[in-house]
Design a protein that fits this description.
By secondary structure, the protein is α/β, with parallel strands linked by helices. It contains 13 helices and 20 strands. The strands form four sheets. It has a six-stranded mixed sheet, with helices on one face. It holds the Pfam family Rhodanese.
Length: 445
C-alpha cells in the first residue's frame, strides 16, 4: 500500500493517490484540474485509476474528477448531500470502497460545508490514515462561512461551526492516535486561518497541538472559529457550482482561449497585466490591472475579477502567457478570457513616488492601506490612512478623496501594484496615484 501526496503550491492544495500494490489499483482523493500528474503516477506503477473521491465541492479550485472519469472510466464518489450533477456513486457513513488489502470508509463530517466527508483508510484490518478534506487541517480546522449562499445545501456559518465542533469530536477524535492525517490544504489557503506549514500529521499530534481539538465548550469553539476568518474571494461560490456540475476537460478548455491580440481592444474590458511591476510602471495598455504572476496569482485574479466578467490577459512572453492561462484555468476563469496576448509595454505609465518627500510630509498625501482588516489591527502603519482591502477596492473607489495625490500600500508590495493600478484606472487625470511598493518596509516598525 502506498499513499502519494500531490501539491499545488499556488493554491496550497493537497490531493492524494492511494495505491494497492498487490492489485495495481488506485483511488484518487480531491484531484486538481490538471489530471496529468495522476495519469503519470498510474503509468509509473502500471496501475489503473478505479475511483475518484470528492470530499466536498471545492470553493478554491476546479477539480479534475469529471475528466478523470471520462479518461479512465473511474467511478466518482461523493456524499449524497452534494447533489452532484455528474454520474457518481454516493459515499456516506457506512459506505466502503474495498480494493486489495485496502478499505476506504466514509465519514460524514459536516462543518466546512454541509456535504463534507472524511475518508478513513484501513489496511490489513487496521486504520492507518484519514483524508480529512477541508474538515481537519494541520493546526486548524476548515472555515464554516463559505456555504451560506453556495452549493446544493446552504447553511449559516453559526450552524456549520456547531456541526464542525461535533464532527471533529464525534468522528475524527475517535480514531487512534497513530492514524495519519492527510488534509486537502496547507498553510496559505483561504479555506482556514491558522494552518501549519506541515503537510501531514497524526490524530495524536493534532490532539496535542490543534486548537480546534482541545477541551472547550461548543460556544467557545464557535466564537473562536468565526473570529478573524480571511476574506472570501469572489470566485469561491462560482467554483462550488462548477465542481457540483463538473468542469470540461482542461485541454479542451485551454484550446478555446483565443491567444492572439485583437485588432481592436474593447475599452470596457480590463486587461490583466501579469508582468513584473517595474515593467508595468514603465509602460502598459490603458485599462490594465497589474496582477503580477506569482504564488497567489489565481487567488487575486478571482478576488478582483468577478465570475462571468470578461477580461484580457497579457504577459511578457509566450511561455509565461501559456503558464498564466493554465493558472487561470485552475479556478475556472479561462472561459472569461476575451483574448490572451504578449505585450512589451504601452503608452500608460505610473509615476515614481518621491520617497523622501512622502516620508517628510505624509499629510500631503491620501494614503490608501489595502491590507486585510486583521493585518491592520495587528500592525497599523499610517495614522490617517484610508483602509480599503484589495478585494473590496473596486467597489469602494468613491471613498477615495481627490484633493491630494494618492499613495497605495500593502505589506510588501505585491498587492499595492494591483491596487494602485486599479485606482489609477478609475481616477485617470483627476489626481496622481503612486505605489509605495516594497518601500513600505521602511515604514513598518
Amino acid at each position: 500500500m502506498k499513499i502519494e501526496q500531490f501539491e499545488d503550491k499556488g493554491l496550497s492544495h493537497y490531493s492524494y493517490a492511494v495505491l494497492s500494490e498487490c492489485e495495481n489499483k488506485i483511488v484518487l482523493i480531491d484531484p486538481s484540474r490538471d489530471i496529468t500528474p495522476y495519469l503519470s503516477f498510474a503509468k509509473a506503477h502500471d496501475a489503473n485509476i478505479i475511483a475518484v473521491i470528492e470530499t466536498h465541492p471545492h470553493a478554491d479550485f476546479v477539480s479534475g474528477h469529471l475528466e478523470l472519469q471520462q479518461v479512465t472510466g473511474a467511478v466518482i464518489y461523493s456524499s449524497k448531500l452534494l447533489g452532484a450533477e455528474y454520474a457518481h456513486q454516493t459515499f456516506d457513513d457506512g459506505d466502503e470502497i474495498v480494493f486489495g488489502k485496502i478499505k476506504l470508509k466514509a465519514l460524514n463530517t459536516p462543518g466546512h460545508s454541509p456535504d463534507s466527508i472524511s475518508i478513513v483508510l484501513e489496511h490489513d484490518g487496521k486504520d492507518k490514515a484519514v483524508f480529512t478534506g477541508d474538515t481537519l487541517f494541520i493546526g486548524d480546522c476548515g472555515r464554516p462561512d463559505l456555504r451560506e449562499q453556495a452549493g446544493n445545501l446552504t447553511a449559516k456559518r453559526e450552524e456549520l461551526a456547531k456541526l464542525m465542533y461535533h464532527s471533529l469530536r464525534d468522528k475524527l477524535l475517535t480514531l487512534d492516535d497513530v492514524v495519519g492525517v492527510y488534509p486537502a490544504h496547507g498553510a496559505g489557503t483561504l479555506c482556514g486561518k491558522a494552518l501549519s506549514e506541515a503537510n501531514r500529521s497524526t490524530i495524536g499530534a493534532e490532539k496535542a497541538g490543534n486548537w480546534s481539538l482541545q477541551e472547550i465548550s461548543e460556544a467557545e469553539f464557535v466564537r473562536e472559529l468565526l473570529a478573524d476568518q480571511p476574506f472570501i474571494p469572489k470566485y469561491f461560490a462560482y467554483d462550488v457550482a462548477l465542481n457540483k456540475h463538473g468542469a470540461i476537460g482542461l485541454k479542451t478548455a485551454l484550446a478555446d482561449v483565443p491567444v492572439k491580440k485583437p485588432i481592436t481592444l474593447n475599452s470596457k474590458l480590463f486587461i490583466i497585466d501579469a508582468r513584473p511591476e517595474a515593467d508595468f510602471k514603465k509602460g502598459h495598455l490603458p485599462g490594465s490591472i497589474n496582477i503580477q504572476d506569482g504564488g497567489k496569482f489565481e487567488t487575486w485574479l478571482g478576488s478582483i475579477i468577478a465570475p462571468e466578467e470578461v477580461f484580457y490577459l497579457v504577459a511578457e512572453n509566450e511561455e509565461k502567457l501559456k503558464q498564466l492561462i493554465s493558472k487561470t484555468a485552475k479556478i475556472g476563469y479561462e472561459a472569461f478570457i476575451e483574448a490572451a496576448f504578449v505585450v512589451a509595454g504601452g503608452d500608460e505609465q505610473m509615476a515614481e513616488l518621491h520617497l523622501a518627500h512622502f516620508a517628510a510630509h505624509p499629510e500631503q498625501y491620501t494614503i490608501v492601506d489595502i491590507r486585510n482588516e486583521a493585518e491592520i489591527k495587528t500592525q497599523p502603519v499610517f495614522r490617517n490612512a484610508i483602509h480599503i482591502p484589495l478585494y473590496e477596492l473596486r467597489e469602494c473607489l468613491a471613498n477615495i478623496p481627490l484633493s491630494k495625490p494618492v499613495v497605495v500600500h500593502c505589506a510588501g508590495g505585491y498587492r499595492s501594484a494591483a491596487g494602485s493600478s486599479i485606482i489609477a484606472n478609475a481616477l485617470g487625470t483627476k489626481t496622481k496615484v503612486f505605489d509605495l511598493g516594497e518601500a513600505i518596509k521602511n515604514f513598518i516598525s
